[in-house]
Design goal:
This protein is mostly helical. The chain contains 3 helices and no strands.
């Protein structure tokens, strides 16, 4: 009988600990995705506005975005380059996805 109580106690403690710490991991992941989306949207809206005002060409936008991604990677250490916006075409995709999400 004591083995059953120890098993049930362990199950209860494990469930509580999983709920507390598992929720934090999921929340952190969701926050990271939100930050990446917001950063991409901010960058893209800025370079798109500069391109529409005639301040940057599409090639210059690509150059600026690649430089920004390299600077972030150098600062942060291990940043996934595939998640960074790197061209005017990718910016158009990001902005279209955000517009469709509304």
């Amino acid at each position: 009988m004591s083995k059953l109580l120890i098993g049930l106690g362990g199950l209860f403690v494990g469930a509580v600990a999983g709920a507390l710490f598992g929720g934090a991991v999921i929340g952190g992941t969701a926050a990271g995705v939100g930050i990446a989306t917001g950063l991409s949207a901010g960058i893209c809206s800025t370079v798109t506005a500069a391109q529409e005002e005639g301040l940057l060409t599409a090639e210059q936008v690509d150059q600026v975005l690649n430089r920004a991604a390299a600077d972030v990677a150098a600062t942060a250490g291990s940043v996934d380059h595939d998640s960074m916006v790197g061209s005017a075409d990718e910016c158009a995709t990001v902005m279209n996805n955000l517009a469709a999400a509304d």
